[in-house]
Design a protein that fits this description.
Elements: H1 11-39, H2 41-61, E1 82-83, E2 92-93, E3 98-104, H3 113-116, E4 120-126, E5 140-144, E6 149-152
Antiparallel strand pairs: 1-2, 3-4, 4-5, 5-6
Length: 163
């Protein structure tokens, strides 16, 4: 009787390969997810810089005042700068990862025209899946009429890592 040599992999070899793949996956997936979250901050940065430009144009054309009405006065949706999924609803960044609001430079949401005479701050606050970013680093990014950039982490502390 002739013995032939078996070809193939042993069960131990297959289990080692599966273990190595599992370890690599456990390391790679969280890093990839963090990279995706970080890359979506560009959505906020584009929205903020575009809205500051629209505010300055409004200031020049409408009598030396800024506006808190992104939807109607600045027409940001019509100009391709923001998204408003429901009429009268929240104003979101173009890819809808951030909620956009206008504050007076002295602080406070929903400012009136008098409060905006001194200047404005446009804030982008993470929404949806992007809220995972605020747990660690960037809960919101802001840009004001003096071109000063700021960011706040999930604990409410200022951070320099977002811009």
């Amino acid at each position: 009787m002739k013995h032939t040599k078996q070809r193939g992999f042993t069960l131990i070899e297959i289990m080692i390969v599966i273990g190595v793949i599992g370890i690599l996956t456990a390391i790679a997936i969280p890093q990839f997810q963090q990279y995706i979250i970080k890359s979506k901050r560009v959505d906020a940065k584009v929205a903020l810089t575009s809205l500051v430009q629209l505010q300055e144009s409004f200031y020049t054309n409408k009598g030396n005042t800024y506006t808190a009405d992104l939807e109607n006065d600045l027409a940001c949706k019509h100009k391709g700068v923001c998204s408003i999924p429901t009429p009268g609803g929240d104003v979101l960044s173009l890819d809808e990862h951030y909620k956009l609001t206008v504050e007076s430079v002295s602080g406070g949401a929903d400012p009136d025209a008098a409060a905006l005479l001194a200047g404005f701050t446009i804030r982008a606050t993470a929404t949806g899946a992007q809220k995972k970013d605020d747990e660690k680093e960037c809960a919101s990014l802001a840009l004001n009429s003096r071109n000063q950039k700021s960011a706040v982490n999930g604990a409410g502390e200022d951070t320099d890592d977002c811009w």
